[in-house]
Design a protein that fits this description.
The protein is an alpha+beta fold. It has a single domain, classed as Ribosomal Protein L22, Chain A. It is 41% helix and 31% strand. The protein is elongated. The N and C termini lie close together (8 Å).
């Protein structure tokens, strides 16, 4: 089985310029990677992190892409890849005593999630 046919059933979504650091988003993405769409939504709903909101939005977008563009069933989808990369840093300054300024760096990140239908190993062996 070639990679091009395997990638044809993968749907992706990207969230760009999301406020929050990439390391804080990665700790949530590490928990949902490899899980089913339903399990991931349940986990994201009850996690106590601020980054679960944007992650849920990107995940729903990826599943909508899979459903609309490829006709896949949302209940059978698995999160194959989930990553967060650093985005540009917004630089702000806070006034301090005696005319000084203190730099504040507001970090952003880019979230990428890909979902795919599970592959059955028996079907792959039968084709070979």
């Amino acid at each position: 089985m070639t990679n091009s046919s395997a990638n044809s059933s993968v749907a992706k979504a990207h969230g760009r310029f999301i406020r929050g650091s990439a390391s804080k988003v990665r700790r949530v993405l590490d928990q949902i990677r490899g899980r089913t769409y339903r399990d991931a939504l349940i986990m994201l709903e009850f996690m106590p992190y601020r980054s679960t909101g944007p992650i849920t939005k990107v995940l729903r977008s990826a599943v909508a892409n899979a459903e609309h563009n490829m006709g896949l069933d949302p209940s059978s989808l698995i999160i194959t890849t989930a990553s967060a990369d650093m985005g540009p840093t917004m630089k702000r300054f806070r006034p301090r005593a005696q005319g000084r300024a203190f730099a504040i760096k507001k970090q952003t990140c880019h979230i990428s999630i890909a979902v795919a239908a599970p592959t059955n190993t028996l079907d792959a062996e039968a084709q070979d």
